[in-house]
Amino acid sequence: MSVAALITAGGKGTRIAELGVEKPLAPLLGRPMVDIVLEQLMLVDEVSAVYVSVSPNVPRTREHLEAMGVRVLETSGTEYCHDLIQAAEGIAEDHVLICPADLPLLRAELVADVVNDYLRRKERSLTVGIPLERALEFGVDVTFYECVDGRSLIPCGVSVVDRQAMLTREYLPGGYYVADTLDVVLNVNTVRDLREAERELRARLTCP
């Protein structure tokens, strides 16, 4: 079964607008944030193709990605779920790993484990969730969580779905993959988030 990765990069990113650049191009250690996410997803053997969805909100991001030869999918940029459907219509693979462009700490090893878990389960969707207590420990601003098998989990924005089932626009039943690392806990919405991600990436580079 073929699995594609879809990086969603078409949002407005209003909370980080003070940087003066589109959110996917926010610099981390001198590199655009979207490039760091791309790099990790392209290392995942279980992923056969990587796409990035853009919109009229991010014209410079589109130019940047096209210049790199990345497979770019155009969406309206008006509503997240609608944009996901639009992007899925341009993907040929059977299954899609969805990942926001604002998770620069996400590592290939975790993505591979999530995809393999999804393929083992043979359900129509798998959502990556962060334990509520872990999110609070990391100082995450919690706005939503679900109770799953007695645990409070926060969806982090990463999931794997059956593409054809997704195109029906119906609810996709499935399970949760529980992750409690900074890989998925820290998503970049503000300049402060960006600086925290930069510190973590720098620490990873210095670790043996």
Structure report:
A hairpin with a 2-residue loop joins strand 8 and strand 9. It is built from 8 helices and 10 strands. With 208 residues, it is an alpha/beta fold. It is globular and about 40 Å long. It has one domain: Spore Coat Polysaccharide Biosynthesis Protein SpsA, Chain A. It has helices at 33-41, 59-68, 80-88, 108-121, 132-137, 163-167, 182-185, 191-206; strands at residues 3-8, 27-28, 31-32, 49-54, 71-74, 95-100, 125-131, 146-148, 151-162, 175-178.
Short précis:
The chain is α/β, with parallel strands linked by helices and 208 residues long. It has helices at residues 33-41, 59-68, 80-88, 108-121, 132-137, 163-167, 182-185, 191-206; strands at residues 3-8, 27-28, 31-32, 49-54, 71-74, 95-100, 125-131, 146-148, 151-162, 175-178.
What distance separates the N and C termini?
A: 36 Å
> What are the secondary-structure elements, in order, as H or E?
EEEHEHEHEHEHEEHEHH
The low-confidence parts are none
Beta-strand content bin: 25-35%
From the alpha carbons, calculate the radius of gyration and give it in angstroms. Answer: 16 Å
CATH class membership: Alpha Beta
